[in-house]
Amino acid sequence: MNEEQRLENTQVKSADKKSEKDYSKYFQTVYMPPSLKDAKARGKETVAYHKDFAISEEFRGMGQGRKFYIRTYGCQMNEHDTEVMAGIFLALGYEPTNTVEDANVILLNTCAIRENAENKVFGELGHLKPLKQRNPDVLIGVCGCMSQEESVVNKILQKHHHVDMIFGTHNIHRLPNILNEAYLSKEMVIEVWSKEGDVIENLPKVRKGEIKAWVNIMYGCDKFCTYCIVPYTRGKERSRRPEDIIQEVRHLAAQGYKEITLLGQNVNAYGKDFEDIKYGLGDLMDEIRKVDVARIRFTTSHPRDFDDHLIEVLAKGGNLVDHIHLPVQSGSSDVLKIMARKYTREQYLELVRKIKEAIPTASLTTDIIVGFPNETEEQFEETISLYKEVGFDSAYTFIYSPREGTPAAKMQDNVPMEVKKARLQRLNAVVNEFSAQKMQEYVGQVVEVLVEGESKNNPDVLAGYTAKSKLVNFRGPKSATGQLVKVKITAAKTWSLNGEMVEEAAEVK
Description:
Largest sheet: 6 strands, parallel
Helix content: 25-40%
Number of domains: 4
Radius of gyration: 24 Å
CATH class of the largest domain: Alpha Beta
Protein backbone atom coordinates (compact mmCIF):
# COMPACT_ATOMS: atom_id res chain seq x y z
CA MET A 1 0.00 0.00 0.00
CA ASN A 2 1.42 3.38 -0.93
CA GLU A 3 0.83 6.68 0.89
CA GLU A 4 -2.16 7.63 -1.26
CA GLN A 5 -3.85 4.31 -0.56
CA ARG A 6 -3.01 4.61 3.14
CA LEU A 7 -4.75 7.96 3.38
CA GLU A 8 -7.80 6.55 1.64
CA ASN A 9 -7.88 3.70 4.18
CA THR A 10 -7.67 5.75 7.36
CA GLN A 11 -8.74 3.73 10.36
CA VAL A 12 -12.33 4.27 11.48
CA LYS A 13 -12.77 4.82 15.20
CA SER A 14 -15.93 4.82 17.26
CA ALA A 15 -16.42 5.78 20.88
CA ASP A 16 -19.56 3.85 21.76
CA LYS A 17 -19.16 0.69 23.84
CA LYS A 18 -20.91 -1.56 21.38
CA SER A 19 -18.38 -0.80 18.63
CA GLU A 20 -15.50 -1.24 21.08
CA LYS A 21 -16.33 -4.95 21.14
CA ASP A 22 -16.78 -5.11 17.38
CA TYR A 23 -13.20 -5.97 16.42
CA SER A 24 -14.12 -6.43 12.76
CA LYS A 25 -14.00 -2.64 12.31
CA TYR A 26 -10.22 -2.81 12.33
CA PHE A 27 -10.11 -5.29 9.49
CA GLN A 28 -12.59 -3.51 7.25
CA THR A 29 -10.05 -0.74 6.87
CA VAL A 30 -6.59 -2.03 7.72
CA TYR A 31 -6.62 -5.74 7.10
CA MET A 32 -7.75 -8.23 4.49
CA PRO A 33 -7.46 -11.93 5.36
CA PRO A 34 -5.24 -14.03 3.07
CA SER A 35 -6.85 -14.85 -0.25
CA LEU A 36 -4.83 -16.97 -2.67
CA LYS A 37 -6.95 -15.83 -5.60
CA ASP A 38 -6.57 -12.13 -4.78
CA ALA A 39 -2.90 -12.44 -3.90
CA LYS A 40 -1.98 -14.16 -7.16
CA ALA A 41 -3.61 -11.32 -9.08
CA ARG A 42 -1.78 -8.66 -7.13
CA GLY A 43 0.98 -8.10 -9.67
CA LYS A 44 -1.03 -5.26 -11.23
CA GLU A 45 -0.77 -3.12 -8.13
CA THR A 46 1.82 -0.37 -8.32
CA VAL A 47 4.71 -0.39 -5.89
CA ALA A 48 6.19 3.05 -5.28
CA TYR A 49 9.94 3.57 -4.87
CA HIS A 50 10.80 6.27 -2.31
CA LYS A 51 14.32 7.63 -1.89
CA ASP A 52 13.36 10.53 0.33
CA PHE A 53 12.85 9.00 3.81
CA ALA A 54 13.49 11.54 6.54
CA ILE A 55 12.41 12.03 10.16
CA SER A 56 9.85 14.83 10.29
CA GLU A 57 10.93 17.84 12.36
CA GLU A 58 7.79 17.51 14.51
CA PHE A 59 9.05 14.12 15.78
CA ARG A 60 12.70 15.01 16.41
CA GLY A 61 13.46 14.88 20.12
CA MET A 62 10.46 12.61 20.78
CA GLY A 63 12.77 10.11 22.46
CA GLN A 64 14.68 12.58 24.60
CA GLY A 65 15.20 10.94 28.00
CA ARG A 66 13.50 7.73 26.81
CA LYS A 67 14.84 4.25 26.11
CA PHE A 68 13.77 1.50 23.70
CA TYR A 69 14.00 -2.28 23.74
CA ILE A 70 13.36 -4.58 20.76
CA ARG A 71 13.07 -8.37 21.06
CA THR A 72 13.44 -10.13 17.71
CA TYR A 73 12.02 -13.51 16.72
CA GLY A 74 12.56 -15.42 13.47
CA CYS A 75 14.68 -14.96 10.39
CA GLN A 76 17.51 -12.69 9.28
CA MET A 77 14.98 -10.47 7.55
CA ASN A 78 13.40 -9.78 10.95
CA GLU A 79 16.86 -9.13 12.41
CA HIS A 80 17.48 -6.60 9.65
CA ASP A 81 14.07 -4.96 10.23
CA THR A 82 15.10 -4.57 13.88
CA GLU A 83 18.30 -2.81 12.76
CA VAL A 84 16.16 -0.34 10.80
CA MET A 85 13.76 0.28 13.69
CA ALA A 86 16.71 0.80 16.05
CA GLY A 87 18.08 3.35 13.58
CA ILE A 88 14.77 5.21 13.57
CA PHE A 89 14.62 5.17 17.39
CA LEU A 90 18.11 6.68 17.62
CA ALA A 91 17.19 9.33 15.05
CA LEU A 92 14.21 10.23 17.27
CA GLY A 93 16.51 10.69 20.27
CA TYR A 94 15.84 7.39 22.10
CA GLU A 95 18.61 5.38 23.73
CA PRO A 96 18.84 1.56 23.53
CA THR A 97 18.54 -0.62 26.63
CA ASN A 98 19.06 -4.33 27.20
CA THR A 99 16.23 -4.80 29.71
CA VAL A 100 12.47 -4.35 29.52
CA GLU A 101 12.46 -2.99 33.08
CA ASP A 102 14.47 0.01 31.92
CA ALA A 103 12.57 0.65 28.68
CA ASN A 104 10.00 3.31 27.83
CA VAL A 105 9.09 1.54 24.57
CA ILE A 106 9.12 -2.25 24.15
CA LEU A 107 8.68 -3.83 20.71
CA LEU A 108 8.29 -7.51 19.91
CA ASN A 109 9.36 -8.06 16.28
CA THR A 110 7.55 -11.28 15.51
CA CYS A 111 7.74 -14.31 13.22
CA ALA A 112 4.73 -16.11 11.73
CA ILE A 113 6.43 -19.12 10.13
CA ARG A 114 5.70 -21.64 12.89
CA GLU A 115 3.21 -21.99 15.71
CA ASN A 116 5.97 -22.30 18.31
CA ALA A 117 7.28 -18.81 17.48
CA GLU A 118 3.77 -17.42 17.86
CA ASN A 119 3.30 -19.08 21.24
CA LYS A 120 6.56 -17.52 22.49
CA VAL A 121 5.31 -14.06 21.60
CA PHE A 122 2.00 -14.48 23.40
CA GLY A 123 3.92 -15.87 26.39
CA GLU A 124 6.13 -12.77 26.41
CA LEU A 125 3.07 -10.50 26.18
CA GLY A 126 1.74 -12.22 29.30
CA HIS A 127 5.02 -11.54 31.12
CA LEU A 128 4.88 -7.86 30.13
CA LYS A 129 1.42 -7.27 31.59
CA PRO A 130 2.60 -6.76 35.22
CA LEU A 131 5.26 -4.36 33.93
CA LYS A 132 2.56 -2.28 32.20
CA GLN A 133 0.48 -2.31 35.37
CA ARG A 134 3.46 -1.02 37.39
CA ASN A 135 4.35 1.54 34.76
CA PRO A 136 1.33 2.57 32.64
CA ASP A 137 3.45 5.03 30.65
CA VAL A 138 5.57 2.30 29.01
CA LEU A 139 4.53 1.63 25.40
CA ILE A 140 4.28 -2.02 24.31
CA GLY A 141 4.12 -2.84 20.62
CA VAL A 142 3.83 -5.92 18.41
CA CYS A 143 5.26 -5.70 14.90
CA GLY A 144 6.62 -8.02 12.21
CA CYS A 145 4.98 -10.92 10.42
CA MET A 146 2.52 -11.98 13.14
CA SER A 147 1.00 -8.50 12.99
CA GLN A 148 -0.12 -9.20 9.42
CA GLU A 149 -2.36 -12.09 10.57
CA GLU A 150 -5.99 -11.29 11.34
CA SER A 151 -6.28 -14.00 14.00
CA VAL A 152 -3.24 -12.62 15.85
CA VAL A 153 -4.51 -9.03 15.83
CA ASN A 154 -7.93 -10.27 16.97
CA LYS A 155 -6.38 -12.24 19.84
CA ILE A 156 -4.35 -9.22 20.99
CA LEU A 157 -7.44 -6.98 20.82
CA GLN A 158 -9.46 -9.43 22.88
CA LYS A 159 -6.94 -10.69 25.45
CA HIS A 160 -3.95 -8.34 25.61
CA HIS A 161 -5.37 -4.89 26.24
CA HIS A 162 -2.01 -3.72 27.65
CA VAL A 163 -0.57 -3.67 24.11
CA ASP A 164 -0.43 -0.08 22.83
CA MET A 165 0.39 -0.55 19.16
CA ILE A 166 0.39 -3.12 16.39
CA PHE A 167 2.03 -2.46 13.05
CA GLY A 168 2.97 -4.61 10.10
CA THR A 169 5.99 -5.41 7.98
CA HIS A 170 5.12 -2.71 5.42
CA ASN A 171 4.83 0.03 8.05
CA ILE A 172 8.29 0.20 9.62
CA HIS A 173 9.07 3.57 8.02
CA ARG A 174 5.92 4.89 9.73
CA LEU A 175 7.31 4.15 13.22
CA PRO A 176 7.64 7.86 14.22
CA ASN A 177 3.98 8.47 13.33
CA ILE A 178 2.85 5.29 15.10
CA LEU A 179 4.77 6.19 18.28
CA ASN A 180 3.37 9.71 18.22
CA GLU A 181 -0.18 8.42 17.87
CA ALA A 182 0.39 5.88 20.66
CA TYR A 183 1.52 8.64 23.04
CA LEU A 184 -1.54 10.74 22.23
CA SER A 185 -4.17 7.99 21.91
CA LYS A 186 -6.15 6.34 24.69
CA GLU A 187 -6.80 3.23 22.64
CA MET A 188 -4.66 0.72 20.80
CA VAL A 189 -2.98 2.06 17.66
CA ILE A 190 -3.22 -0.39 14.78
CA GLU A 191 -1.58 0.18 11.44
CA VAL A 192 -1.43 -2.95 9.32
CA TRP A 193 -1.48 -2.60 5.56
CA SER A 194 -2.73 -5.70 3.83
CA LYS A 195 -1.69 -4.45 0.41
CA GLU A 196 1.83 -4.29 -0.95
CA GLY A 197 4.57 -2.31 0.73
CA ASP A 198 6.54 0.33 -1.06
CA VAL A 199 10.33 0.24 -1.37
CA ILE A 200 11.74 2.85 1.01
CA GLU A 201 15.39 3.84 0.65
CA ASN A 202 17.61 5.84 3.03
CA LEU A 203 16.16 4.26 6.18
CA PRO A 204 18.57 4.64 9.12
CA LYS A 205 20.09 1.42 10.49
CA VAL A 206 21.94 0.34 13.60
CA ARG A 207 23.97 -2.66 12.48
CA LYS A 208 24.34 -5.57 14.87
CA GLY A 209 28.11 -5.85 15.20
CA GLU A 210 30.85 -4.55 12.93
CA ILE A 211 31.92 -7.77 11.20
CA LYS A 212 28.92 -9.11 9.31
CA ALA A 213 26.15 -7.09 7.70
CA TRP A 214 22.82 -7.88 6.05
CA VAL A 215 21.58 -6.04 2.99
CA ASN A 216 17.98 -6.36 1.80
CA ILE A 217 17.93 -6.62 -1.97
CA MET A 218 14.23 -7.44 -2.32
CA TYR A 219 11.05 -7.89 -0.32
CA GLY A 220 8.13 -10.29 -0.45
CA CYS A 221 7.48 -13.58 -2.23
CA ASP A 222 5.24 -14.68 -5.09
CA LYS A 223 5.74 -18.43 -4.81
CA PHE A 224 2.69 -19.27 -2.64
CA CYS A 225 3.91 -22.60 -1.28
CA THR A 226 0.76 -24.03 0.29
CA TYR A 227 2.23 -24.20 3.82
CA CYS A 228 3.76 -20.72 3.92
CA ILE A 229 2.28 -17.49 5.28
CA VAL A 230 5.15 -15.27 4.03
CA PRO A 231 3.57 -14.19 0.70
CA TYR A 232 0.70 -12.75 2.73
CA THR A 233 2.73 -11.20 5.58
CA ARG A 234 5.54 -9.80 3.43
CA GLY A 235 3.67 -8.98 0.23
CA LYS A 236 4.60 -9.42 -3.40
CA GLU A 237 8.12 -9.58 -4.77
CA ARG A 238 9.63 -6.13 -5.19
CA SER A 239 13.29 -5.47 -5.84
CA ARG A 240 15.52 -2.60 -4.84
CA ARG A 241 17.38 -0.88 -7.65
CA PRO A 242 20.86 -2.36 -8.24
CA GLU A 243 22.62 1.00 -7.91
CA ASP A 244 21.18 1.48 -4.39
CA ILE A 245 22.25 -2.01 -3.33
CA ILE A 246 25.76 -1.65 -4.74
CA GLN A 247 26.16 1.73 -3.06
CA GLU A 248 25.13 0.23 0.31
CA VAL A 249 27.55 -2.70 -0.13
CA ARG A 250 30.42 -0.34 -1.01
CA HIS A 251 29.62 1.79 2.02
CA LEU A 252 29.72 -1.28 4.29
CA ALA A 253 33.02 -2.39 2.75
CA ALA A 254 34.47 1.07 3.41
CA GLN A 255 33.36 0.75 7.05
CA GLY A 256 35.37 -2.46 7.37
CA TYR A 257 32.67 -5.13 7.27
CA LYS A 258 34.15 -8.48 6.24
CA GLU A 259 31.02 -10.41 5.27
CA ILE A 260 27.80 -9.26 3.63
CA THR A 261 24.67 -11.37 3.21
CA LEU A 262 22.15 -10.33 0.56
CA LEU A 263 18.65 -10.93 1.91
CA GLY A 264 15.28 -11.70 0.36
CA GLN A 265 12.37 -14.00 1.10
CA ASN A 266 13.08 -15.45 -2.32
CA VAL A 267 16.42 -13.83 -3.03
CA ASN A 268 17.12 -15.35 -6.43
CA ALA A 269 13.88 -13.96 -7.86
CA TYR A 270 15.64 -10.60 -7.60
CA GLY A 271 15.02 -8.32 -10.57
CA LYS A 272 12.14 -10.28 -12.08
CA ASP A 273 9.79 -7.39 -11.31
CA PHE A 274 11.89 -4.82 -13.18
CA GLU A 275 10.13 -3.56 -16.28
CA ASP A 276 12.83 -1.24 -17.63
CA ILE A 277 15.89 -3.51 -17.43
CA LYS A 278 16.74 -7.20 -17.67
CA TYR A 279 18.75 -7.72 -14.52
CA GLY A 280 18.82 -10.65 -12.10
CA LEU A 281 20.69 -11.92 -9.06
CA GLY A 282 23.51 -13.24 -11.26
CA ASP A 283 24.07 -9.75 -12.66
CA LEU A 284 24.03 -8.21 -9.18
CA MET A 285 26.46 -10.80 -7.76
CA ASP A 286 28.75 -10.25 -10.75
CA GLU A 287 29.00 -6.55 -9.89
CA ILE A 288 29.21 -6.96 -6.12
CA ARG A 289 32.02 -9.51 -6.37
CA LYS A 290 34.23 -6.61 -7.56
CA VAL A 291 33.70 -4.75 -4.28
CA ASP A 292 36.55 -5.06 -1.78
CA VAL A 293 34.80 -7.16 0.86
CA ALA A 294 36.04 -10.60 1.94
CA ARG A 295 32.81 -12.61 1.67
CA ILE A 296 29.50 -12.24 -0.12
CA ARG A 297 26.63 -14.69 0.39
CA PHE A 298 22.85 -14.69 -0.08
CA THR A 299 19.77 -16.27 1.46
CA THR A 300 17.17 -17.68 1.04
CA SER A 301 16.89 -19.07 -2.45
CA HIS A 302 14.15 -21.04 -4.19
CA PRO A 303 15.25 -23.89 -6.51
CA ARG A 304 12.77 -22.73 -9.13
CA ASP A 305 14.57 -19.41 -9.61
CA PHE A 306 18.15 -20.68 -9.44
CA ASP A 307 19.20 -20.05 -13.03
CA ASP A 308 22.29 -21.01 -15.06
CA HIS A 309 23.63 -17.45 -15.14
CA LEU A 310 23.71 -17.30 -11.34
CA ILE A 311 25.62 -20.61 -11.22
CA GLU A 312 28.05 -19.28 -13.84
CA VAL A 313 28.73 -16.15 -11.77
CA LEU A 314 29.09 -18.05 -8.48
CA ALA A 315 31.64 -20.32 -10.18
CA LYS A 316 33.93 -17.29 -10.57
CA GLY A 317 34.63 -17.60 -6.84
CA GLY A 318 36.69 -14.88 -5.26
CA ASN A 319 34.65 -13.29 -2.50
CA LEU A 320 31.50 -15.19 -3.58
CA VAL A 321 31.31 -18.02 -1.05
CA ASP A 322 30.84 -21.62 -2.14
CA HIS A 323 28.14 -22.35 0.45
CA ILE A 324 24.59 -22.38 -0.93
CA HIS A 325 21.43 -22.79 1.13
CA LEU A 326 18.90 -24.45 -1.16
CA PRO A 327 15.65 -25.48 0.59
CA VAL A 328 14.15 -28.66 -0.86
CA GLN A 329 11.37 -29.25 1.75
CA SER A 330 10.68 -32.82 0.55
CA GLY A 331 12.32 -35.51 -1.55
CA SER A 332 9.01 -36.69 -2.98
CA SER A 333 7.68 -35.19 -6.22
CA ASP A 334 4.14 -35.94 -5.10
CA VAL A 335 4.57 -34.08 -1.80
CA LEU A 336 6.35 -31.22 -3.58
CA LYS A 337 3.32 -30.93 -5.85
CA ILE A 338 0.95 -30.65 -2.88
CA MET A 339 3.32 -28.07 -1.39
CA ALA A 340 3.12 -26.11 -4.70
CA ARG A 341 6.91 -25.95 -4.88
CA LYS A 342 6.68 -26.13 -8.71
CA TYR A 343 9.66 -28.44 -9.21
CA THR A 344 10.11 -32.20 -9.02
CA ARG A 345 12.66 -34.33 -7.22
CA GLU A 346 14.39 -34.90 -10.55
CA GLN A 347 14.57 -31.19 -11.35
CA TYR A 348 16.06 -30.44 -7.93
CA LEU A 349 18.71 -33.14 -8.37
CA GLU A 350 19.55 -31.79 -11.84
CA LEU A 351 20.04 -28.32 -10.33
CA VAL A 352 22.35 -29.80 -7.69
CA ARG A 353 24.30 -31.60 -10.44
CA LYS A 354 24.78 -28.32 -12.33
CA ILE A 355 25.95 -26.50 -9.19
CA LYS A 356 28.44 -29.22 -8.25
CA GLU A 357 29.75 -29.46 -11.81
CA ALA A 358 30.36 -25.70 -11.98
CA ILE A 359 31.53 -25.36 -8.35
CA PRO A 360 33.19 -28.64 -7.26
CA THR A 361 33.91 -27.26 -3.77
CA ALA A 362 30.28 -26.22 -3.17
CA SER A 363 28.65 -27.17 0.11
CA LEU A 364 24.87 -27.35 0.18
CA THR A 365 22.49 -26.96 3.10
CA THR A 366 18.71 -27.22 3.02
CA ASP A 367 15.33 -27.00 4.78
CA ILE A 368 13.06 -30.05 5.15
CA ILE A 369 9.50 -30.43 6.45
CA VAL A 370 8.33 -33.84 7.66
CA GLY A 371 4.75 -34.96 8.23
CA PHE A 372 3.13 -32.78 5.57
CA PRO A 373 -0.54 -33.71 4.96
CA ASN A 374 -0.82 -37.07 3.18
CA GLU A 375 2.91 -37.80 3.41
CA THR A 376 3.29 -41.58 3.29
CA GLU A 377 6.12 -43.67 4.71
CA GLU A 378 7.39 -44.26 1.18
CA GLN A 379 7.40 -40.52 0.43
CA PHE A 380 9.29 -39.83 3.64
CA GLU A 381 11.87 -42.44 2.61
CA GLU A 382 12.27 -40.52 -0.66
CA THR A 383 13.31 -37.50 1.41
CA ILE A 384 15.91 -39.61 3.24
CA SER A 385 17.26 -40.98 -0.04
CA LEU A 386 17.45 -37.51 -1.62
CA TYR A 387 19.36 -36.21 1.39
CA LYS A 388 21.90 -38.99 1.01
CA GLU A 389 22.13 -38.58 -2.76
CA VAL A 390 22.83 -34.85 -2.55
CA GLY A 391 25.11 -35.24 0.45
CA PHE A 392 24.03 -32.06 2.23
CA ASP A 393 26.38 -30.59 4.81
CA SER A 394 23.46 -29.90 7.16
CA ALA A 395 19.75 -29.10 7.26
CA TYR A 396 17.11 -27.23 9.19
CA THR A 397 14.41 -29.81 9.84
CA PHE A 398 10.84 -29.15 10.95
CA ILE A 399 7.64 -30.96 11.80
CA TYR A 400 4.79 -29.58 9.69
CA SER A 401 2.43 -27.32 11.59
CA PRO A 402 -0.51 -25.62 9.82
CA ARG A 403 -0.56 -21.83 9.58
CA GLU A 404 -4.01 -20.27 9.55
CA GLY A 405 -4.80 -18.61 6.23
CA THR A 406 -2.60 -20.87 4.10
CA PRO A 407 -4.05 -23.42 1.63
CA ALA A 408 -2.39 -26.30 3.52
CA ALA A 409 -4.29 -25.33 6.69
CA LYS A 410 -7.48 -26.41 4.91
CA MET A 411 -6.01 -29.85 4.19
CA GLN A 412 -6.56 -32.70 6.61
CA ASP A 413 -3.52 -32.84 8.89
CA ASN A 414 -3.65 -36.62 8.75
CA VAL A 415 -0.14 -37.66 9.80
CA PRO A 416 -0.27 -38.46 13.55
CA MET A 417 2.07 -36.42 15.74
CA GLU A 418 3.88 -39.52 17.00
CA VAL A 419 4.62 -40.46 13.38
CA LYS A 420 5.84 -36.92 12.62
CA LYS A 421 8.16 -37.00 15.64
CA ALA A 422 9.51 -40.44 14.73
CA ARG A 423 10.22 -39.29 11.16
CA LEU A 424 11.94 -36.15 12.38
CA GLN A 425 14.12 -38.26 14.67
CA ARG A 426 15.08 -40.59 11.81
CA LEU A 427 15.83 -37.68 9.49
CA ASN A 428 17.91 -35.91 12.13
CA ALA A 429 19.96 -39.05 12.66
CA VAL A 430 20.92 -38.93 8.96
CA VAL A 431 21.54 -35.17 9.13
CA ASN A 432 23.83 -35.62 12.15
CA GLU A 433 25.67 -38.51 10.52
CA PHE A 434 26.39 -36.56 7.33
CA SER A 435 27.39 -33.43 9.26
CA ALA A 436 29.87 -35.43 11.35
CA GLN A 437 31.36 -36.98 8.19
CA LYS A 438 31.70 -33.59 6.48
CA MET A 439 33.34 -32.11 9.57
CA GLN A 440 35.79 -35.00 9.85
CA GLU A 441 37.12 -34.18 6.38
CA TYR A 442 38.48 -30.89 7.73
CA VAL A 443 40.83 -32.48 10.26
CA GLY A 444 44.42 -31.63 9.31
CA GLN A 445 43.28 -28.93 6.85
CA VAL A 446 43.97 -25.21 7.16
CA VAL A 447 40.85 -23.07 6.83
CA GLU A 448 40.19 -19.34 6.78
CA VAL A 449 38.06 -18.24 9.72
CA LEU A 450 36.24 -14.94 10.19
CA VAL A 451 36.60 -14.43 13.94
CA GLU A 452 33.42 -13.21 15.64
CA GLY A 453 34.65 -13.10 19.23
CA GLU A 454 34.73 -15.26 22.35
CA SER A 455 33.16 -18.70 22.31
CA LYS A 456 29.78 -18.80 24.07
CA ASN A 457 31.00 -21.70 26.20
CA ASN A 458 34.53 -20.54 27.01
CA PRO A 459 35.75 -16.91 27.14
CA ASP A 460 39.35 -18.11 26.69
CA VAL A 461 38.49 -19.56 23.28
CA LEU A 462 37.76 -17.60 20.09
CA ALA A 463 34.99 -18.62 17.68
CA GLY A 464 34.34 -17.86 14.03
CA TYR A 465 33.05 -19.26 10.77
CA THR A 466 34.55 -20.52 7.55
CA ALA A 467 33.22 -19.45 4.15
CA LYS A 468 31.13 -22.64 4.24
CA SER A 469 29.59 -21.52 7.57
CA LYS A 470 31.42 -24.10 9.69
CA LEU A 471 31.86 -23.03 13.32
CA VAL A 472 35.53 -23.14 14.40
CA ASN A 473 36.76 -22.80 17.99
CA PHE A 474 40.43 -22.06 18.67
CA ARG A 475 42.74 -20.24 21.06
CA GLY A 476 44.13 -16.94 19.89
CA PRO A 477 44.57 -13.27 20.79
CA LYS A 478 41.42 -11.20 21.34
CA SER A 479 42.83 -8.80 18.73
CA ALA A 480 41.96 -11.40 16.08
CA THR A 481 38.24 -10.58 16.54
CA GLY A 482 36.85 -9.20 13.30
CA GLN A 483 39.79 -10.53 11.31
CA LEU A 484 40.26 -13.36 8.84
CA VAL A 485 42.79 -15.80 10.24
CA LYS A 486 44.15 -19.18 9.22
CA VAL A 487 43.36 -22.08 11.56
CA LYS A 488 44.57 -25.67 11.33
CA ILE A 489 41.76 -28.06 12.27
CA THR A 490 42.77 -30.55 14.96
CA ALA A 491 39.44 -32.15 15.89
CA ALA A 492 35.91 -32.40 14.54
CA LYS A 493 32.56 -32.61 16.30
CA THR A 494 29.12 -33.05 14.72
CA TRP A 495 28.45 -29.33 14.42
CA SER A 496 31.79 -27.61 15.07
CA LEU A 497 35.53 -27.80 14.58
CA ASN A 498 38.45 -27.25 16.94
CA GLY A 499 41.74 -25.90 15.72
CA GLU A 500 44.98 -24.04 16.25
CA MET A 501 45.75 -20.63 14.83
CA VAL A 502 48.69 -20.75 12.40
CA GLU A 503 51.02 -17.88 11.69
CA GLU A 504 52.74 -19.15 8.60
CA ALA A 505 51.18 -18.81 5.18
CA ALA A 506 49.31 -21.95 4.26
CA GLU A 507 47.00 -23.09 1.54
CA VAL A 508 43.45 -22.33 2.60
CA LYS A 509 40.77 -24.89 1.84
